[in-house]
Design goal:
Elements: E1 13-22, H1 26-37, E2 42-45, E3 62-63, H2 78-86, E4 91-93, H3 97-100, H4 105-110, E5 115-117, H5 119-132, E6 136-138, E7 142-149, E8 152-160, E9 163-174, H6 180-185, E10 189-191, E11 202-206, E12 209-215, H7 222-227, E13 238-240, H8 254-278, E14 283-287, E15 297-299, E16 317-322, E17 330-334, E18 346-348, H9 357-363, H10 366-380, H11 391-400
Parallel strand pairs: 1-2, 1-9, 2-6, 9-18, 12-13
Antiparallel strand pairs: 3-5, 4-5, 7-8, 8-9, 10-15, 11-12, 11-14, 16-17
Helix pairs in contact: 1-10, 2-10
């Protein structure tokens, strides 16, 4: 393989911050909110030009459950705040009346705490919220590398229209979804064993109505959802199984990602033309503008959590989550899944925390990303050596924010 050598160059340190959040998806939004509310100077770096990631630009516009499916709410704090923010202006489907308007246990058992929202209004509302908190947002900015001093990241190198520069940091939260910063900084990482299936969701207009089409469900086609006890409720939208069972991609290879997006676009184009030929009012409104990557690369943290640890007590729990796929399960999420031992001032949040492949499908979704993002933001506001975090103090702050930490807090 041929190569060239780039000339060595001096980079300007254009700014500094207490907490740098890499990635403006749900985990990154929650982390920035938590750190800013704790009085820290926060910079959020996002490669696209809108917030929300998969939840907005990917059009995965279903805010999955904050409950266990049996009428008990598990997830509180910023995760619930963001759910309510997502429907501040418009509810597209599945308004959780029993949950938001104080319904009885029996009423809550009939429908999970889930909602479908408008992606564009959610992205704009989240941006307004972060700006009001004083968060600096750098759009259209790629993180190219990091500089370290010993076991700590000292600077994050970014590139955008202004060129290449560095940001001095006290701590970093990797909310990229792909553990990009973890990999750059030399933390241990792992790839998902099966990779990702082909999907590309879109909104379409027909007969006077705009609707969401879940064009490709990766590994959970409708028949599997029914086998798992889901049926078609509460996730009501037109569904299509994985677009090509023979296509799997890791999510961390540039050429492969481009090929996957092109393949998904081709199938979506064919789908749109097919339905338009049958009904000339059937036209696309918007399509996913980023690859629909569910599970790619993750941190190998101080602790790796597994699906078998349902209702297990963790003394360092930072929040709870259920299982969006079925009723009943409840999990405590240990802080040890958010940090590793190689890079002291780096936390993971969102879908790149330290979990097994089996657990990954549970923790990758919107509510759990918000839970881990909030915990990461609060921890980053307390110090920058996360191997020495005062867990009791962290938990006290989370409790003060309304977060429930242990299964026993719900099932008394």
């Amino acid at each position: 393989m041929s190569f060239i050598l780039e000339p060595q160059r001096q980079l300007n340190v254009d700014s500094s911050c207490d907490v740098l959040v890499a990635g403006g998806g749900i985990a990154g939004i929650a982390a920035a909110m938590a750190a800013a509310r704790a009085g820290k100077k926060v910079t959020l770096v996002e490669r696209e030009y809108a917030l929300g990631g998969m939840a907005t630009l990917g059009l995965i516009t279903i805010y999955l459950p904050l409950c266990d499916g049996e009428g008990n709410q598990l997830i509180y704090g910023i995760a619930e705040e963001l759910l309510k923010l997502s429907i501040k202006h418009v509810v597209e489907a599945n308004y959780p009346k029993a949950w938001i308007e104080g319904g009885s246990l029996e009423e809550r058992k009939k429908s999970r705490y889930v909602v479908q929202y408008n992606p564009h209004l959610f992205a704009l509302s989240a941006e307004e919220l972060l700006l009001d908190l004083g968060v600096t947002i750098l759009y259209g900015t790629l993180i190219a590398s990091v500089a370290k001093e010993g076991d700590f990241i000292s600077h994050v190198v970014v590139e955008n229209k202004s060129g290449r520069s560095a940001i001095a940091v006290e701590s970093v939260i990797d909310a990229t979804g792909d553990a990009d910063i973890c990999a750059m900084a030399g933390a241990k990482t792992a790839l998902h064993g099966r990779g990702n299936g082909l999907a590309s969701w879109y909104y379409y207009f027909t007969q006077g109505k705009v609707s969401l089409k879940m064009f490709g469900l990766a590994d959970l086609p409708p028949s599997k959802l029914q086998e798992k006890g889901q049926g078609n409720d509460p996730y009501k939208a037109a569904k299509v199984a994985s677009l090509d069972e023979n296509v799997r991609f890791s999510g961390v290879d540039g050429e492969e990602l481009s090929q996957a997006v092109i393949a998904a676009h081709k199938k979506m184009y064919e789908d749109l033309l097919k339905f338009h030929a049958e009904d000339d009012t059937y036209v696309p409104v918007t399509i996913s503008t980023i690859p629909l990557v569910r599970m790619s690369r993750r941190l190998c943290g101080a602790y790796t959590m597994d699906e078998s640890e349902e209702r297990k007590f963790f003394p360092d729990s930072i929040g709870l989550t259920g299982d969006w796929r079925k009723k009943g399960p409840a999990f405590e999420i240990p802080f040890g899944t958010l940090y590793g031992n190689e890079v002291k001032n780096l936390l993971a949040a969102g879908r790149d925390i330290s979990v097994t492949d089996a657990m990954w499908d549970i923790t990758r979704v919107i509510p759990t990303c918000a839970v881990t993002g909030e915990a990461a933001g609060v921890a980053a506001a307390m110090g920058n050596d996360f191997t020495k975090t005062d867990i009791k103090a962290l938990q006290e702050r989370l409790i003060a924010n309304g977060v429930k930490l242990h299964v026993s807090d719900v099932y008394k």
